[in-house]
Design brief:
single chain, Rossmann fold, 2 domains, about 15% strand, HAD-SF_hydro_IA, HAD family phosphatase
Length: about 210
């Protein structure tokens, strides 16, 4: 049975939806769909998770799409506005804390976007022992080197860890280095898994209350 929990952040602990920022900035639905689906794509954003500076990626994208210059420029400074609390997850983190389970995270996240985001969600991350940020390491999940580096830094044996992520490729990478895994879909399903692993108390009530950022 695992004795520690290692979380992914985006789309697990919090809900990442670029639409949240751009609904007002680009009110035309077709233009907004074009911007998010063809220009400021998740593949483009993944460069930030790998450590590329936003100044570089935004300049390149603006040169190709100058008519979207304002929207591109907002992506980095206003990244926090793309994120919302994930229903039910604050309660599960509290339940793990109450049980004394050591908490960690390995996140694909820009080293530039991470500090202001972390400050906004400080209550959620209170008590986390350590968090590995891909942009700081210049490595991204599911690279096994990142998992091993994180485990070494945490001082945690792979066999003692439960890794939670919303992407199957990241789950497969964690399993390959020896961690127990859970593919995240929602808080209710995760709560059942945590009960199966005896990581939270059975009498902990489910809750959708979230910390106010």
């Amino acid at each position: 049975m695992p004795t520690v929990v290692i979380f992914d952040v985006g789309n697990v602990l919090v809900d990442w939806q670029p639409e949240l920022l751009y609904r007002d900035m680009i009110p035309d639905e077709s233009l907004r769909a074009q911007f998010l689906g063809e220009i400021a794509t998740k593949d483009w954003h993944f460069q930030h998770d790998a450590g590329r500076p936003f100044a570089e990626t935004s300049a390149e994208l603006t040169a190709r799409h100058p008519h979207f210059a304002e929207a591109i420029a907002a992506w980095g400074p206003r990244f926090g506005e793309q994120v919302a609390p994930m229903p039910g997850m604050a309660a599960l983190v509290d339940a793990l804390r109450a049980r004394g389970v050591p908490l960690y995270a390995i996140t694909n996240f820009s080293h530039e976007f991470w500090p202001p985001f972390r400050r906004t969600y400080e209550a959620l991350f209170e008590g986390f022992v350590d968090i590995v940020v891909s942009g700081e390491e210049r490595l991204t999940k599911p690279d096994p080197v990142l998992y091993r580096r994180a485990l070494d830094r945490f001082g945690v044996a792979a066999a003692d860890a439960l890794f939670i992520d919303d992407r199957m490729d990241n789950i497969a990478g964690a399993a390959a280095v020896g961690m127990a895994t859970h593919l995240f879909t929602d808080a209710a399903t995760l709560r059942a898994a945590l009960l199966d692993f005896c990581l939270i108390d059975p009498d902990i009530a489910s809750s959708n209350e979230e910390p106010t950022p």
